[in-house]
Amino acid sequence: MGLKRRAQSAPGGERMGSVLGFPGVDPLDAAVGARLKRWREARGMAVDDLAVLLCITAEEVRRAEAGRAHLNAARIGAVTHALHLPLWALVSDSRAY
Fold first, then answer.
1. Which of 80, 97, 92, 94 is CA-nearest to residue 32?
2. What is the spatial distance between Cα 32 and Cα 40, in angstroms, rounded to a whole number?
3. Helices 47-54 & 58-65, crossing angle to 10 degrees?
4. What digits encode the pLDDT tens for the residues 7-42?
5. Fewer CB within 10 Å of terminal CB in the chain, N or C?
6. 74, part of any domain
7. pTM of the entire structure?
8. Could you tell me the residue range of the domain that residue 58 belongs to?
């Protein structure tokens, strides 16, 4: 007979494990964000410069690099275009071809 673990809820109905009610970081978003930061730094581009090219705030770029913001397909396409990268560069560590 196996034991089932139930997610514990905080008094406000939020799941335990998040700090002060902030949501946790999605591992896939964290991986994409780490690649974004690595490629941006390798290209010698400042956060502010990338933000201007993407028409977003520098804080949104920092959040994406930290994995706290999800980048949809359109935004990934814009980032790879701005950094002169192939599309696979942010979603995989191995070449797609």
1. 92
2. 12
3. 110
4. 444 444 444 445 566 667 889 999 999 999 999 999
5. N
6. yes
7. 0.73
8. 27-91
